[in-house]
Write a structure and sequence with these properties.
313 residues, alpha/beta, globular
Protein backbone atom coordinates (compact mmCIF):
# COMPACT_ATOMS: atom_id res chain seq x y z
CA UNK A 1 0.00 0.00 0.00
CA UNK A 2 1.10 3.55 -0.75
CA UNK A 3 0.67 6.47 1.64
CA UNK A 4 -0.68 9.90 0.76
CA UNK A 5 -1.61 13.12 2.53
CA UNK A 6 -5.34 13.80 2.17
CA UNK A 7 -7.95 16.04 3.76
CA UNK A 8 -11.63 15.12 4.16
CA UNK A 9 -12.86 18.70 4.51
CA UNK A 10 -11.82 22.32 4.08
CA UNK A 11 -10.00 23.71 7.09
CA UNK A 12 -6.71 24.52 8.75
CA UNK A 13 -3.54 22.44 8.60
CA UNK A 14 -4.98 20.08 11.19
CA UNK A 15 -7.32 18.55 8.57
CA UNK A 16 -4.36 17.01 6.74
CA UNK A 17 -3.88 13.32 7.48
CA UNK A 18 -1.75 10.46 6.14
CA UNK A 19 -3.84 7.63 4.67
CA UNK A 20 -2.94 4.29 3.20
CA UNK A 21 -4.15 4.04 -0.40
CA UNK A 22 -3.86 1.42 -3.14
CA UNK A 23 -0.61 1.55 -5.06
CA UNK A 24 -1.12 3.73 -8.15
CA UNK A 25 -1.25 2.10 -11.57
CA UNK A 26 0.03 3.83 -14.69
CA UNK A 27 -2.88 4.30 -17.08
CA UNK A 28 -2.54 5.16 -20.78
CA UNK A 29 -0.28 8.18 -21.16
CA UNK A 30 0.89 7.98 -17.52
CA UNK A 31 3.88 6.92 -15.47
CA UNK A 32 4.01 6.01 -11.79
CA UNK A 33 6.70 7.54 -9.63
CA UNK A 34 8.16 6.60 -6.25
CA UNK A 35 8.25 10.11 -4.75
CA UNK A 36 11.53 11.21 -3.19
CA UNK A 37 10.52 14.86 -2.66
CA UNK A 38 7.44 17.02 -3.21
CA UNK A 39 7.42 20.80 -3.38
CA UNK A 40 5.30 22.82 -0.94
CA UNK A 41 3.50 25.68 -2.71
CA UNK A 42 1.06 28.39 -1.57
CA UNK A 43 -1.55 26.81 -3.84
CA UNK A 44 -1.56 23.70 -1.64
CA UNK A 45 -2.78 25.56 1.44
CA UNK A 46 -5.13 27.76 -0.59
CA UNK A 47 -6.93 24.65 -1.80
CA UNK A 48 -6.92 23.09 1.66
CA UNK A 49 -8.29 26.24 3.30
CA UNK A 50 -10.97 26.94 0.70
CA UNK A 51 -9.41 30.07 -0.79
CA UNK A 52 -9.46 28.17 -4.06
CA UNK A 53 -12.63 26.08 -4.54
CA UNK A 54 -12.69 22.27 -4.55
CA UNK A 55 -15.54 19.90 -5.39
CA UNK A 56 -16.76 18.58 -2.00
CA UNK A 57 -18.12 15.46 -3.70
CA UNK A 58 -14.56 14.41 -4.51
CA UNK A 59 -13.34 14.36 -0.89
CA UNK A 60 -11.03 13.24 0.57
CA UNK A 61 -8.78 15.48 -1.46
CA UNK A 62 -5.12 14.90 -2.30
CA UNK A 63 -2.59 17.73 -2.12
CA UNK A 64 0.64 18.73 -3.86
CA UNK A 65 1.40 19.29 -7.55
CA UNK A 66 5.20 19.25 -7.89
CA UNK A 67 7.64 16.47 -7.14
CA UNK A 68 10.51 14.24 -8.17
CA UNK A 69 11.49 10.64 -7.79
CA UNK A 70 12.03 7.41 -9.69
CA UNK A 71 9.80 5.83 -12.34
CA UNK A 72 8.15 2.59 -11.13
CA UNK A 73 5.72 1.96 -13.98
CA UNK A 74 5.04 3.05 -17.57
CA UNK A 75 1.56 3.11 -19.10
CA UNK A 76 0.46 2.31 -22.63
CA UNK A 77 1.43 4.81 -25.27
CA UNK A 78 4.29 6.30 -23.28
CA UNK A 79 7.72 6.65 -24.86
CA UNK A 80 10.91 8.03 -23.37
CA UNK A 81 10.63 6.61 -19.86
CA UNK A 82 11.78 3.35 -18.32
CA UNK A 83 11.42 1.90 -14.84
CA UNK A 84 14.25 3.29 -12.73
CA UNK A 85 14.54 6.63 -14.54
CA UNK A 86 14.98 9.70 -12.30
CA UNK A 87 12.30 12.28 -13.09
CA UNK A 88 10.78 15.58 -12.01
CA UNK A 89 7.11 16.30 -12.56
CA UNK A 90 4.44 18.99 -12.27
CA UNK A 91 0.64 19.15 -12.28
CA UNK A 92 0.22 15.98 -10.22
CA UNK A 93 -2.96 15.19 -8.35
CA UNK A 94 -1.41 14.55 -4.96
CA UNK A 95 2.40 14.75 -4.88
CA UNK A 96 2.48 14.55 -1.06
CA UNK A 97 2.70 10.77 -1.22
CA UNK A 98 5.05 7.82 -1.34
CA UNK A 99 3.86 6.98 -4.86
CA UNK A 100 1.86 8.85 -7.49
CA UNK A 101 0.61 8.44 -11.06
CA UNK A 102 1.32 11.45 -13.27
CA UNK A 103 0.81 12.37 -16.90
CA UNK A 104 3.93 11.53 -18.87
CA UNK A 105 3.51 14.88 -20.62
CA UNK A 106 4.14 16.64 -17.28
CA UNK A 107 7.23 14.61 -16.34
CA UNK A 108 10.81 15.01 -17.51
CA UNK A 109 14.02 13.09 -17.00
CA UNK A 110 16.31 14.58 -14.38
CA UNK A 111 19.81 15.07 -15.78
CA UNK A 112 22.77 13.70 -13.89
CA UNK A 113 23.66 15.96 -11.00
CA UNK A 114 20.12 17.32 -10.47
CA UNK A 115 18.78 16.09 -7.15
CA UNK A 116 15.21 15.10 -6.39
CA UNK A 117 14.99 18.10 -4.05
CA UNK A 118 15.99 20.46 -6.84
CA UNK A 119 13.58 18.83 -9.29
CA UNK A 120 10.68 19.00 -6.84
CA UNK A 121 11.31 22.71 -6.24
CA UNK A 122 10.66 23.76 -9.83
CA UNK A 123 7.11 23.13 -11.11
CA UNK A 124 4.86 25.98 -10.01
CA UNK A 125 7.42 28.68 -9.05
CA UNK A 126 9.73 28.21 -12.03
CA UNK A 127 6.78 27.80 -14.41
CA UNK A 128 5.11 30.96 -13.10
CA UNK A 129 8.27 33.05 -13.37
CA UNK A 130 9.21 31.77 -16.82
CA UNK A 131 5.74 32.23 -18.28
CA UNK A 132 5.34 35.71 -16.81
CA UNK A 133 8.66 36.93 -18.19
CA UNK A 134 7.97 35.42 -21.61
CA UNK A 135 4.54 37.04 -21.63
CA UNK A 136 6.06 40.42 -20.73
CA UNK A 137 8.67 39.99 -23.46
CA UNK A 138 11.60 40.59 -21.11
CA UNK A 139 14.95 40.46 -22.89
CA UNK A 140 18.03 42.37 -24.02
CA UNK A 141 17.90 46.04 -23.17
CA UNK A 142 15.23 45.73 -20.50
CA UNK A 143 15.54 46.88 -16.92
CA UNK A 144 13.19 44.65 -14.95
CA UNK A 145 11.93 45.37 -11.44
CA UNK A 146 10.92 42.27 -9.49
CA UNK A 147 8.92 42.83 -6.31
CA UNK A 148 9.89 40.02 -3.94
CA UNK A 149 13.15 38.95 -5.53
CA UNK A 150 14.16 36.58 -2.73
CA UNK A 151 10.90 34.59 -2.71
CA UNK A 152 10.34 31.30 -4.54
CA UNK A 153 8.97 32.79 -7.77
CA UNK A 154 11.09 35.91 -7.46
CA UNK A 155 14.36 34.00 -7.35
CA UNK A 156 13.54 32.20 -10.57
CA UNK A 157 12.37 35.45 -12.17
CA UNK A 158 15.64 37.19 -11.32
CA UNK A 159 17.73 34.35 -12.77
CA UNK A 160 15.66 33.82 -15.92
CA UNK A 161 15.60 37.55 -16.67
CA UNK A 162 19.37 37.80 -16.31
CA UNK A 163 19.75 34.83 -18.67
CA UNK A 164 17.37 36.57 -21.10
CA UNK A 165 19.75 39.56 -21.14
CA UNK A 166 17.90 41.98 -18.86
CA UNK A 167 19.22 44.07 -16.03
CA UNK A 168 17.30 43.12 -12.87
CA UNK A 169 16.48 45.21 -9.82
CA UNK A 170 14.69 43.30 -7.07
CA UNK A 171 13.03 44.37 -3.85
CA UNK A 172 13.95 42.42 -0.74
CA UNK A 173 14.82 42.83 2.92
CA UNK A 174 18.29 43.82 4.09
CA UNK A 175 18.74 40.28 5.43
CA UNK A 176 18.10 38.74 2.00
CA UNK A 177 19.92 41.30 -0.15
CA UNK A 178 23.00 39.10 -0.56
CA UNK A 179 20.86 36.28 -1.92
CA UNK A 180 19.52 38.58 -4.65
CA UNK A 181 23.07 39.64 -5.53
CA UNK A 182 24.17 36.01 -5.75
CA UNK A 183 21.44 35.43 -8.35
CA UNK A 184 22.60 38.33 -10.51
CA UNK A 185 20.08 40.93 -9.36
CA UNK A 186 20.53 44.34 -7.75
CA UNK A 187 18.71 44.45 -4.40
CA UNK A 188 16.71 47.44 -3.20
CA UNK A 189 15.06 47.52 0.20
CA UNK A 190 11.28 47.57 0.24
CA UNK A 191 9.42 49.94 2.57
CA UNK A 192 9.03 53.69 2.77
CA UNK A 193 10.97 55.47 0.03
CA UNK A 194 10.94 52.48 -2.34
CA UNK A 195 10.19 54.53 -5.48
CA UNK A 196 13.10 56.84 -4.77
CA UNK A 197 15.51 53.96 -4.22
CA UNK A 198 14.47 52.32 -7.49
CA UNK A 199 14.93 55.60 -9.35
CA UNK A 200 18.37 56.02 -7.79
CA UNK A 201 19.29 52.51 -8.97
CA UNK A 202 17.82 53.05 -12.44
CA UNK A 203 17.89 56.75 -13.35
CA UNK A 204 16.71 55.96 -16.88
CA UNK A 205 13.72 54.08 -15.51
CA UNK A 206 12.53 50.49 -15.53
CA UNK A 207 10.95 48.96 -18.63
CA UNK A 208 9.10 45.99 -17.08
CA UNK A 209 7.82 45.05 -13.64
CA UNK A 210 6.81 41.72 -12.12
CA UNK A 211 4.98 41.79 -8.79
CA UNK A 212 5.45 38.64 -6.72
CA UNK A 213 4.24 40.02 -3.36
CA UNK A 214 0.89 41.73 -3.96
CA UNK A 215 1.25 44.52 -1.39
CA UNK A 216 -0.27 47.97 -1.83
CA UNK A 217 3.27 49.35 -1.78
CA UNK A 218 4.38 47.12 -4.65
CA UNK A 219 1.36 47.93 -6.80
CA UNK A 220 1.40 51.69 -6.19
CA UNK A 221 5.16 51.86 -6.76
CA UNK A 222 4.79 49.93 -10.01
CA UNK A 223 2.22 52.37 -11.36
CA UNK A 224 4.38 55.32 -10.36
CA UNK A 225 7.53 53.89 -11.94
CA UNK A 226 6.11 52.71 -15.28
CA UNK A 227 3.34 54.19 -17.41
CA UNK A 228 2.92 51.19 -19.71
CA UNK A 229 0.55 48.84 -17.89
CA UNK A 230 1.04 46.15 -20.53
CA UNK A 231 4.56 45.64 -19.15
CA UNK A 232 3.49 45.41 -15.51
CA UNK A 233 2.25 42.06 -14.23
CA UNK A 234 1.20 40.63 -10.89
CA UNK A 235 1.07 36.96 -9.93
CA UNK A 236 -0.73 37.69 -6.65
CA UNK A 237 -3.40 40.37 -7.08
CA UNK A 238 -5.10 39.15 -10.24
CA UNK A 239 -8.52 40.33 -9.11
CA UNK A 240 -7.31 43.97 -9.18
CA UNK A 241 -5.39 43.81 -12.44
CA UNK A 242 -8.13 45.15 -14.71
CA UNK A 243 -8.91 47.96 -12.28
CA UNK A 244 -5.22 48.96 -12.20
CA UNK A 245 -4.69 48.54 -15.93
CA UNK A 246 -1.97 45.91 -15.56
CA UNK A 247 -1.63 42.24 -16.47
CA UNK A 248 -2.17 39.23 -14.22
CA UNK A 249 -0.88 35.67 -14.31
CA UNK A 250 -1.82 33.10 -11.68
CA UNK A 251 -2.96 34.58 -8.35
CA UNK A 252 -6.67 34.35 -9.12
CA UNK A 253 -6.44 36.06 -12.49
CA UNK A 254 -9.91 36.25 -14.06
CA UNK A 255 -8.44 35.41 -17.45
CA UNK A 256 -7.15 31.90 -18.23
CA UNK A 257 -3.69 31.51 -19.69
CA UNK A 258 -3.49 31.38 -23.47
CA UNK A 259 -2.25 28.29 -25.30
CA UNK A 260 1.12 29.98 -25.79
CA UNK A 261 1.37 30.89 -22.11
CA UNK A 262 0.52 27.33 -21.08
CA UNK A 263 3.22 26.10 -23.46
CA UNK A 264 5.76 28.44 -21.85
CA UNK A 265 4.72 27.26 -18.40
CA UNK A 266 5.25 23.63 -19.40
CA UNK A 267 8.55 24.47 -21.13
CA UNK A 268 9.92 25.89 -17.90
CA UNK A 269 10.47 22.51 -16.21
CA UNK A 270 12.77 20.89 -18.81
CA UNK A 271 14.53 24.23 -19.39
CA UNK A 272 15.12 24.62 -15.64
CA UNK A 273 16.42 21.07 -15.27
CA UNK A 274 18.92 21.63 -18.08
CA UNK A 275 20.03 24.97 -16.63
CA UNK A 276 20.61 23.45 -13.18
CA UNK A 277 22.65 20.64 -14.71
CA UNK A 278 24.73 23.21 -16.63
CA UNK A 279 25.29 25.34 -13.53
CA UNK A 280 23.25 28.33 -14.69
CA UNK A 281 20.28 28.10 -12.31
CA UNK A 282 20.43 27.92 -8.52
CA UNK A 283 17.68 26.52 -6.30
CA UNK A 284 17.53 27.49 -2.63
CA UNK A 285 16.36 24.44 -0.68
CA UNK A 286 14.78 24.96 2.72
CA UNK A 287 13.48 22.59 5.39
CA UNK A 288 12.22 19.09 4.58
CA UNK A 289 9.18 17.61 6.36
CA UNK A 290 7.86 14.03 6.51
CA UNK A 291 4.34 13.28 5.30
CA UNK A 292 3.08 13.35 8.89
CA UNK A 293 4.15 17.01 9.22
CA UNK A 294 2.56 18.29 6.01
CA UNK A 295 0.51 20.76 8.05
CA UNK A 296 3.67 22.20 9.61
CA UNK A 297 5.19 22.53 6.14
CA UNK A 298 2.21 24.48 4.81
CA UNK A 299 2.20 26.70 7.89
CA UNK A 300 5.91 27.44 7.47
CA UNK A 301 5.26 28.27 3.81
CA UNK A 302 2.53 30.71 4.79
CA UNK A 303 4.87 32.40 7.27
CA UNK A 304 7.47 33.00 4.59
CA UNK A 305 10.16 30.48 5.47
CA UNK A 306 13.33 30.88 3.45
CA UNK A 307 14.17 28.35 0.77
CA UNK A 308 11.94 25.84 -0.97
CA UNK A 309 10.11 23.71 1.57
CA UNK A 310 9.76 20.04 0.73
CA UNK A 311 7.79 16.98 1.74
CA UNK A 312 10.07 13.96 1.88
CA UNK A 313 8.09 10.71 2.21
Amino acid sequence: MAKAVRFPEIGGPEVLRVDEIPDPVAGPGEITVRVEAAGVNPLDRKLRSGVRPLDPDRAPHRTGADGAGTVTGVGDGVDGFRVGDPVAFADAAGAYATDVAVSAASAFLRPEGVSAAQGAALGIPAGTAYQALRSLGVGDGDTLLVHGGSGAVGQFAVQFAVLFGARVIATTSDARAERVRDLGGEPVRYGEGLVGRVRDAAPDGVTAILDCVGTDEALSASLELLDDGSRIATIVMGARAAELGIRAFSGGSPEPLTAQQLAWRREALPVSLALIAAGYLDVEIGEAFPLERAGDAQTANERGAHGKLLIVP
